[in-house]
Amino acid sequence: MISQEDILKSMEECGLIPVFNHTDAKVALKVLDACYEGGVRVFEFTNRGDNAHEVFDILIRHSEKYNDLILGIGTIFSADDAKKFIDIGAKFIVSPAMIPEMANFCKSQNVLWVPGCGTVTEIHQAVQLGAKMVKAFPGNVLGPGFVKSVKAVFPQLPIMPTGGVAPSEENLKPWFDAGVTCVGMGSKLISKEIISTENFDTLEANLRTALELIKKLRA
After folding, report:
1. Is the whole model's pTM more than 0.85, yes or no?
2. Cβ atoms of residues 160 and 181 within 8 Å
3. What is the pLDDT of residue 1?
């Protein structure tokens, strides 16, 4: 079983985690493949829709052909939901909120828990409960200035903003200048247009460009 530290290392090395959901497993599989071919090694599927569990199960089985791809599940609000997805192979759990019951459950399962936090108080509570990374959410509301201020008092804590993050230098530079470990990227990366036209080659190309940009910004 992959360790929490190894997952965090992969998140940091890549710098970008796609955040995606679709009710059609065939579409989700094509998105996952395009992301992998584009250079992504950590992928977050979100628990939205009545069949998210079934689609994620298919993704997990499909991902076995990639020996270095790590799949996690997001939009989790309870220990019961966390258990359902861990049981079928989720390697990390992401939540929009800081929920103590999930902290305790994920700790008992030795599974990486990434809570969504929007205040220093929530971040402090998350760290006290064992969080090794927090999600700055919603990123488009909090902004890079929030991350920069948090890093002043939690300099070693990995932070991943999600929400409104886009694959452009104008958007990414302030985040990485503020000290984020990686960014979660949803509809700004995997757009409705790409899905509706099934233009997965464009998604792959956009990812390659974004990952190269992140390398440049870090350098």
Report:
1. yes
2. yes
3. 79
